[in-house]
Design a protein that fits this description.
The complex is a heterodimer of chains A (338) and B (92).
Chain A (H helix, E strand, L loop, with lengths): L1 H6 L3 H4 L4 H11 L9 E7 L8 E6 L2 H10 L11 H12 L10 E8 L12 E6 L5 H15 L8 H10 L6 E7 L8 E6 L6 H7 L8 H13 L2 E8 L3 E10 L3 H13 L5 H13 L8 E13 L3 E12 H7 L9
Antiparallel strand pairs in A: 1-2, 1-10, 2-3, 3-4, 4-5, 5-6, 6-7, 7-8, 8-9, 9-10
Chain B lengths: L16 H4 L4 H4 L3 H10 L9 H16 L26
The chains are: A alpha+beta (338), B mainly alpha (92).
């Protein structure tokens, strides 16, 4: 993986991500085989002038992941004990045709926070994606098995019961695409990533979950703007036995032009600092998908995080995906493709 | 205005119509959260719940979880399987 990280560190990316971060990532991934992932990338805060970046890795090939664990050397570079052993167990179950938990997992994500990368690079946050055809009570059951395996720190009583509520309160179209725990932050909640709510469906859904700040005017106005400017708005929530205060609105765009307009909007609102605005704009303008590229670089989305006491913050997600799965994940068309 | 979700809200929603008549209202009207809590977390049975009601609930839960599922390809992170990918542009 280190080679790919180094190769993709272009001058325009260097204006957004510090060389020190890339050096850390190269060091910790130098023995990690590239074949464990076809999809990885960076999360960059747009509300801070400092060049900072989280690092994210998608694992969606259970046999290749298990091979890496069996070699028993490389993944220790990116996952410390005790999580290493626990994740190894889960990875093995994922390859087992008759394991009920394993057979429910579609993919997993490891997310490394920039705050911990320099000092503790080995404790990622963890997400898994359930297969979309599974009964939601199975998903809840499996979630409990997974997170009780991965962490000895339990969740507040009633968390999984509320997860039942969160899924049952979705309409026909919405689904919980990812369920995670922010293990690096030692947070005692689950984070849910909810996709494909109908247009303007977030407010009704949050109302059904009794989100206490649903009438916050800043929240409502900004969400309306997101719906106007983005092609899709997906939702992040944190839950225990109730919904948490913090929300995330993940804004996706069909074209780079629309993404740039949204970036302008963020800049006008003070949600994207000037130190990030021009470098990101330049970077997005330069993205091209060449026919001979095996690894494609793409813009994924922009997330607006909301907290009632702190208002909104924004982050951009840039990713790298192998061509054979790109159509599953890449939504935003570059300005021109060759 | 909140819209009514279409996913199961009560135990009765889990069953096809022809099976509902086999179970008492006490069981069918339990919320999904209560059913989960009873089956998975050992929560106390509601007042007035009989042993037969408890067995019925367990039976429904098992039927629901074992119902045939369709095969679908695994999905990468940001989207559903390729057939439902709503991106308007593809590299293929």
């Amino acid at each position: 993986m280190a080679e790919a990280i180094r190769a993709q560190y272009t001058p325009s990316l260097a204006d957004l991500i510090p060389a020190e971060t890339i050096q850390i990532l190269e060091r910790i991934t130098q023995y990690v085989p590239q074949q464990i992932t076809s999809l990885w990338g960076y999360e960059l805060p747009l509300y801070k002038s400092e060049k900072l970046s989280d690092f994210l890795v998608c694992l969606h090939q259970p046999n290749k992941l298990w091979q890496a664990f069996e070699s028993d050397t490389s993944l220790r570079q990116i996952i410390a004990e005790p999580l290493y052993g626990r994740l190894r167990t889960l990875a093995h179950r994922w390859t087992d045709d008759i394991d009920k938990v394993g057979q429910l997992i579609s993919n997993m994500w490891l997310e490394y926070d920039y705050e911990t990368l320099p000092t503790d690079p080995l404790r990622p946050n963890f997400f898994f994606g359930p297969k979309s055809d599974r009964h939601f009570l199975e998903v809840v059951w499996a979630s409990r098995q997974i997170f009780e395996l991965l962490s000895s720190e339990g969740l507040p009583e009633g968390t999984y019961r509320f997860l039942v509520t969160c899924i049952s309160q979705l309409g026909d179209e919405g689904w919980v695409a990812q369920i995670g725990r922010m293990l690096a932050r030692r947070e005692n909640s689950l984070r849910l990533f909810i996709q494909q709510l109908p247009p303007n469906g977030i407010v009704p859904y949050l109302t059904r979950l009794a989100y206490p700040h649903i009438d916050n005017p800043t929240l409502r106005e900004q969400l309306e703007r997101c719906y106007e400017l983005a092609d899709t708005v997906d939702l992040d929530i944190d839950i225990t036995n109730q919904i948490g205060d913090q929300l995330g609105f993940e804004c996706y765009f069909n074209t780079t032009e629309k993404a740039l307009l949204f970036l302008d909007h963020l800049a006008q609102r003070g949600l994207c600092v000037s130190e990030k605005y021009q470098p990101l704009r330049t970077h997005l303008l330069q993205i091209r998908l060449l026919p001979d590229q095996k690894l494609l670089h793409g813009f994924s989305h922009i997330k607006l995080g909301f907290h009632p006491a702190r208002g909104f913050v924004s982050k951009v997600y840039l990713g790298y995906v192998e061509r054979d799965i790109a159509s599953y994940v890449v939504r935003t068309k570059p300005l021109s493709d060759l | 205005m909140a819209t009514t979700p279409s996913k199961p809200q009560i135990v009765g929603d889990l069953l096809p119509t022809d099976l509902k008549s086999k179970y008492p209202p006490e069981v069918l009207n339990l919320t999904i959260e209560e059913a989960y809590a009873i089956n998975q977390e050992g929560a106390q049975l509601p007042a007035g719940f009989s042993l037969q009601d408890s067995n019925d609930l367990e039976d429904i839960y098992e039927k629901y979880l074992k119902a045939p599922k369709s095969n679908s390809p695994t999905a990468a992170y940001w989207n559903k399987p390729a057939g439902t990918n709503k991106a308007i542009w593809s590299t293929k």
